Amino acid sequence: MKHKITTFVLLFIASNVFSQQKTIDEKVEELLKKMTIEEKVGQLNQYTNDANPTGPLVINPNKQEEIKKGLLGSMLNVMGADRTRKYQELAMQSRLKIPLLFGLDVIHGYKTTFPIPLAEAASWDLEAIEKSARIAAIEASATGIHWTFAPMVDISRDPRWGRVMEGAGEDTYLGSKIAFARVKGFQGDKLGELNSVMACAKHFAAYGAAVGGRDYNSVDMSDRMLWETYLPPFKAAVDAGAATFMNSFNDLNGIPATGNKYLQRDILKGKWNFKGFVVSDWGSIGEMIPHGFAKDSKDAAYKAITAGSDMDMESNAYRNNLAQLVKENKISIDIVDDAVRRILRKKFELGLFDNPFRYSDVERQKAQMNNPEHTKIAREVAAKSIVLLKNEKGILPLSKDLKTIAFIGPMVKPKRANHGFWAIDVKEIDSSYIVSQWEGLVNKIGKKSKLLYAKGCGINNDDKSGFKEAIDIANQSDVVIVSIGERHDMSGEAKSRSTINIPGVQEELVKELQKTGKPIVVLINAGRPLVFNWLADNMPTIVYTWWLGSEAGNAIADVLFGDYNPSGKLPMTFPRSEGQIPLYYNHFNTGRPSMNDNDIIYKSTYIDSPNSPKFPFGYGLSYTSFQYADLKLSKSAISKNEQIVVTMNLTNTGKYDGAEVVQLYIKDKLGSVVRPVKELKDFQKVFLKAGETKNITFTIDNSKLSFYNDKLVFDSEAGEFELMIGTSSEDIRLNANFELVD
Ligand code: GLC
Questions:
Q1: Of 518, 551, 580, which residue constitutes the final position of a domain?
Q2: Does a structural domain hold residue 598?
């Protein structure tokens, strides 16, 4: 009897407790009912901190007053626990005390910076990529940031577009896996945990296909291309639980993304059932006027809110027009309420109503900066992102007993340059902690070897006056390392280039150094694939070092001296010339395929250039070698609900331990629409000790054989398939055929 009473009492308490614990949705509804239309519109309005604009700035002197009146929902570019706290204190003076959301472009790290996302993609190491985002979230959230405007998941096949640096390259499968990993990294186990931030999948959608690679330009593509190539990474972000999306500046097939109902309502909030909110990209709502899609700001506000843009970043269109549109019954209050709900829900999830200042803790901020574990991981991720393009004479790895090394070039000593375009430029964060390439070399062998330095030349000018000094120190050395490339602001937003060469006279400097006859290692630092045919044809040792972040110098030294065996693989095709662009590995065959570089009569090619790239997607060398053998398929024919288990043996046949990215491609030989010559459908990054063999297993199921058919239905079709396993998209080591049967 006593037991029964106890159980009853416990159940009674539990039911009471639960009944008092309103759900977030109930709290949102309760708050919504109290809000005036002005307060509701306020939640849909986002302003930048004037000190750090990341777009065309329109000064609004009343920001602080508007915050106190509850007329602002979010701010971006406010950096530091102290600054975010100050703005939050203003918000707490408002009638309903609705907290502000603080967003920031934490693209590849906050204080500890990681390789630019395109470089990280070259690591093909999903665990490392997730860890990098995790650390970025830990540091950013400690400074009062609730929300990062990342990951950028735009697929791009055009290296003239400067924003390729922010993404994961040209491939949909790799890009989708990386999108998922980055969202998980930023958001952690659960939103609302102090070291998590909201992710923001951007830029929705197809921004990376801008005509001519020119930023903000139009995008025109078939629905099949959109669904097959450009949307899957966004869907992966939804599957990973991305809290927010950001739309894009471009028009898609004539309709600006921010006013595109098909994208934002039909696909994102409809088919994909996305419950988060969409923020417009900087001013993109107002930009529908110059697009010629909105008559004026009021029309832009109408079109954007109707199409599903929930929050207005910096255009003021919502602030100035939404309340009036509701009063005139041009839009229903329901559409505004839906947007407000989505935003309030996130603020509750982040715990901001319980404690608006919980992320703005100066002590926690201090504790999280300069964390040696973060630095260690940044160095590891940077080393994994480096791609060895050539090592023909086996100059690398360099011996640590070298007597004299000349380190030459304009990228040797700069620190900020290793951060690339997007980096958090907080005035309290000076760049002294960034390990320059010079410092990395000094750290590695400065005590034992004599290190000589010369800048040699600038990055983007024709001044050769420094050549002589460079040649002099080269002649005194046993080995020359030359570090050249793009300046940190030559790739990134609004940084499209019509020629993607190595700027200035940097290549000429290398030509002069080559004449010394000394062994030369060329490091190329850039935010995108570049065209460097003379170097590629004439220099035996080339390492692509991207922009590797705050541990760049140490990571480069780790690779050059063999403390890390390079394992990076290109996530984008490197063309021979801009004339080949767009050039990507998973192209269609055409009716007149050019079978080799000389096969040009009546073939789909150029009379003045081969079709082949300078360096293909998935390419990257190692200090060791790998043997691919013993390919076995569990079946040679499957029906749609069956799987094929693919096994093979990978052996490290060289003398260095190292990691290999085993890439699995599939070709669908016949379809109701033409199919690519190959598509990446799986990969594994495998570490092997010298001489070690590992058995590798992949699984092929119907999802890996499916595509958007002639009816735009995602499905597979019976027929012959070719399976290819290789060390790059062009270096296939094993292949087999199999069949899908009805
Ligand atoms: C910029 C970028 C976007 C960024 C936003 C806020 O214009 O397009 O990627 O997140 O504005 O800085």
A1: 580
A2: no
